[in-house]
Amino acid sequence: MTAYERWIWIELIGFDNTLGDFGVAEYIERIGFVPDGMCLLLFTPDFVHAHAGMDQEYALPVEVCSYNARPYGRDRNRQSWTNVQLRGLVSELRKFGVPVYCSFFDLFHAHGDRDGEWCGAHPELYETGRRGERFGFINPLKHLADGSLYEDLFIRELLIVMQDYGFDGYHGADGYTSPRKCLAETDYSDDMIGQFARYAGISFEGAFAEACDGDPDAMERRASWIWRSRRLDWISFHSRRWAAFWQKIVDAVHGAGKKTFVNTAWTREPMEALYRYGVDYKLLAETGIDGFIVESVGASLSAGADETEYEPGTEFMTMIMTIKAYVPDTKLICLNAIQDTNEQWDALRHAPTVLERDIFAFSNVYLKEPEGIRRASSGFMACLGDGISRDGWQWLTSRWQLGFDGQPQDIAGPTLVWSDKALHHSLEDYVASREWPVHKWTNELIDRGVPLHGVVNVRDLPRTEGAIVATCVHALPEDELRELLAYRGGRAVLIGRMTERIVAFAAADGLSLACVIGDYFCAVREADGSLDHLVAAQNEAGWAQWQEKTGEINDAIIWLDHLAFSPVPDAFVDSCAQMAAKHTGAPQALANADYIRTIALEMAPNRWLVLIRNLHLNYKIAKLDVGRTIAAVRVMTDFPGIPVFPDDSRFRLYVPGRGMVVVELEF
């Protein structure tokens, strides 16, 4: 039994329906382990709604047989599967002890422009844009033409499908856990506006009629008014609506003795999941889901899938940390972006260094609790699992094993402070002024060399030791602000916007913060309560002035695009990073400091594990000083393939471009 979970997301094309056991025994032998969960990607809601029972054998829709009906994979051509064969496949997998989940998107276009049989007959469910545009995916929160809620039909038929095929659970994938497009863009149909009006107690009259489907200009005016004037209500409505949807699913699926796992919202951490998609991870966790599948698909994006120019390594580390801080008792399984033939990217073959980096980095961010530290992630889901050779699986699993090897006793470096309440205050601040939330500050600090790879909830500060970094201090409620200012467990770096409340609370705790109200500040407080350093910068983020400069900001963007944030002086952010990185006990980069980042873990009193990341495309030398005399350096990764020798408290080695090397230090 491993210390972490190994999941696989795979299409039917990964198996062979011409064999008696559908190729299951060969597949299990090839991967070299029994998965803790296997999610069959069946692509479309038609898999559920076109189900005709098991009394007769019939062919499944072609798009169910492979992702978007792709005609071939590496191992075989797409085969025509029947309902009876799929039931047999599930049975064979379960014989090996594999829990099998059904999984599908909200998509129904496949094999050219052909619509799925059931979805194609229900255009009232199609996601609808600001001007009434209908998109090629459904919105599961809408009503059917007869006035009944789609979700009630969906849950009834999902349970039938799960029982008929013998599935152990349901993996809610894209479109069934969040909208496919952002709230600024969809869904502005009369159906969703009517639901929103009842939730928010709004009476649409005059220019903003509640019923205006088919009138693009009227729909646009109504949508613009909602996003401009009732944005927080629109976000809150969706967060409650998605939670209610999933509460019904969880109650029904758990009632049948089965499990539910839910994809996170388009690689977004808690604040952007709310702002962009109206998804509140805590509300979903409170429904009783068995876990989140975190969309940490870094390697595919780093490698340029879909011609993206996006390097999300730091951003996704922050995402995993902050999601865990927000839902500490909910299991997180990280989606490991390995390959996807349909989407035309392959990190295993074309970008193995970034895949290796993701594995080591995403398995080594931590939640700090009074009892100690624990990993934010509980394991990986291979995405996708067909067409990988035995050698490929051995390469992957050896890195998964190293990533999760051992239980650290502590983290070398500061710990990020998290507050659930500040999250919601930051959302309000962002709507008002585009002010930086916690995750934006964290990304900027890590990018500038601050070794932030652990997070602690503000409520646990009285039982915490070590250096801490708290951002958005002004967004903390009074009780949490008092808790933060009272911290004496170590050095504290406090970053925020100065308010009269902060001045008064700090003075009451013996801390004099001489800053102009409204300015940004970064204060460094030592464990004895004394002020070590204070730097301030003028707040350039006034919303009215900034909007005049930039014009109307477009929030109707795809998940790959970054939100717009108000400007903060670079020199100030640099100063914050320098103070946050100082005196933390983490390794110091003596060469290539712009590119070399570290995660240092205390595995035992005289033993560290150090993960060394290179941000550059090319090889770079990492020359590190760990502040203690090193007795020996042991390289844990395949590279570099030569011994590394210490020089007192220092050592040096090469790190591959956009990759990571792991070493063990004995002191």
Strand content: 15-25%
Q: Order the strands across the largest sheet as they lie in space.
A: 1-2-3-8-9-10-11-16
Given as residue ranges, the uncertain stretches (5+ residues, pLDDT < 50) are none
What is the oligomeric state here?
single chain
Q: Please identify the structural class as seen in this structure.
A: alpha/beta
Number of helices: 22
Report the average pLDDT across residues. Answer: 94
The 3D shape can be described as globular
Major sheet attributes: 8 strands, parallel, barrel
- Measured distance between first and last alpha carbons: 31 Å
Rg for CA atoms: 26 Å
Helix fraction bin: 25-40%
Total DSSP E strands: 30
Overview of the molecule:
It contains 22 helices and 30 strands. The chain is globular.
Topology:
Elements: E1 5-10, H1 24-31, E2 37-41, H2 46-49, H3 62-65, H4 83-95, E3 100-104, E4 109-110, E5 114-115, H5 117-120, E6 126-128, E7 134-138, H6 150-165, E8 169-172, H7 190-200, H8 216-229, H9 231-255, E9 259-263, H10 270-277, H11 281-285, E10 291-294, H12 298-302, H13 313-326, E11 332-337, E12 339-340, E13 345-346, H14 347-350, H15 352-362, E14 366-369, E15 372-375, E16 379-383, H16 390-403, E17 410-412, E18 415-418, H17 420-433, H18 438-447, E19 454-457, E20 468-470, H19 478-485, E21 492-497, H20 500-508, E22 520-525, E23 531-537, H21 543-550, H22 570-581, E24 588-589, E25 596-604, E26 607-614, E27 620-625, E28 632-635, E29 650-655, E30 660-666
Parallel strand pairs: 1-2, 1-16, 2-3, 3-8, 8-9, 9-10, 10-11, 11-16, 14-19, 18-19, 18-20, 20-21
Antiparallel strand pairs: 4-5, 6-7, 12-13, 14-15, 17-25, 21-22, 22-23, 24-27, 25-26, 26-30, 27-29, 28-30
